[in-house]
């Protein structure tokens, strides 16, 4: 499923970024918000099923 792949890619990207950026870094916050959005979409999808 495409949505799961995107979630996993973004999660890995965030983990890598966290190695050298602060959690409050703007880039970290933006990626975290994108991940939250994808996770919400996935949750909505699962509830419809």
What is the gist of this entry?
The chain is built from two helices and no strands. The protein is mostly helical and 49 residues long.
List the helices and strands and how they pair.
Blueprint (H helix, E strand, L loop, with lengths): L1 H16 L8 H23 L1
Helix pairs in contact: 1-2
InterPro entries: HLH_DNA-bd_sf, Spo0E-like, Spo0E-like_sf
GO molecular function, one term: protein dimerization activity
GO biological process, one term: regulation of sporulation
Q: Helix- and strand-based class?
A: mainly alpha
Number of domains: 1
Query: Helix content range of the residues, please?
Result: over 70%
Kindly estimate the percentage of residues that lie in beta strands according to DSSP: under 5%
Outline, from the CA principal axes? Answer: elongated
What's the main sheet like? none
Count of helical regions: 2
Question: What is the multimeric organization of the chains shown?
Answer: single chain
Terminal CA distance reads 14 Å
Total number of strands: 0
* SSE order, one letter for each helix or strand: HH
Q: Measured on Cα atoms, how large is the radius of gyration?
A: 12 Å
The pLDDT mean sits at 95
Provide the low-confidence segments as ranges.
none
Can you tell me about this structure?
Helix 1 packs antiparallel against helix 2 (26-48). The longest helix is centred in the C-terminal third of the chain and has 23 residues, at 26-48. Helix content is 80%, strand content 0%. The protein has helices at residues 2-17, 26-48. The model has no long low-confidence stretch (mean pLDDT 95). It is elongated. The protein has one domain (2-48). With 49 residues, it is an all-alpha fold.
């Amino acid at each position: 499923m495409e949505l799961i792949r995107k979630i996993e890619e973004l999660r890995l990207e965030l983990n890598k970024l966290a190695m050298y950026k602060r959690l409050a870094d703007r880039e970290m916050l933006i990626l975290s918000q994108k991940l939250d959005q994808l996770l919400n979409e996935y949750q909505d999808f699962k509830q419809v099923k």
